[in-house]
Amino acid sequence: MDGVAYTTGKEIDEMHKEINFALPYIGSIDASRVEDEIMGVLVHEMVHCWQWNGLGTAPGGLIEGIADWVRLKAGHAPPHWKREGDGDWDAGYQHTGYFLEWLEGRFGEDVVVRLNEMLRGQRYHEETFWRGLVGTPVGELWIEYGKSLKSKEQGVADDA
Question: What are phi and psi of 151, to 5 degrees?
Answer without folding.
Answer: -60, -45
